[in-house]
Amino acid sequence: MKHHDHSSHNHQHSGLNPYTGLALMTFLHFLFMYGMNFLMVDAASSIFMNINALYMTLWMVAPSVVIMIILMKEMYPKKKLNVALSLASVLIFVLSFVFIRQQTLVGDKQFIRSMIPHHSGAILMCQEGKIEDAELKALCADIIKAQHNEIEQMKTILERL
User: Secondary structure of the chain: what % helix, strand, coil (to 5)?
Assistant: First the structure.
């Protein structure tokens, strides 16, 4: 029975070294996941690039490298490189978790840039949620008004900073 080297076969068809492909997949995954941080804003004007979104994206993307290496081990034959990439990914995963929990590098500007999309998400949930309870409806009306006011206040502060 003839044995086929699938990693070289895939390499010939894709034109990419499997590790280059992994890097490209990780980069594209990063871009996609970073954008997903802003899916819940109620308006595009509430999208602000911020370090908390970066931390969350790194936290979500880092495990994918380890998962790819484990599940597709025949594509990634370099054991030492696999260990190094996996350890780096675990380190990024842990550090991004610690950084988001401790709000590392989050000063006044980054706080506002992180809070505006968060407040905007509360508005979206209240506006689009299928809320039937009268008390919750009243609460949502208050939330929408308060969050709009706070977003405007934060934008004014951000301009001043």
Answer: 75, 0, 25
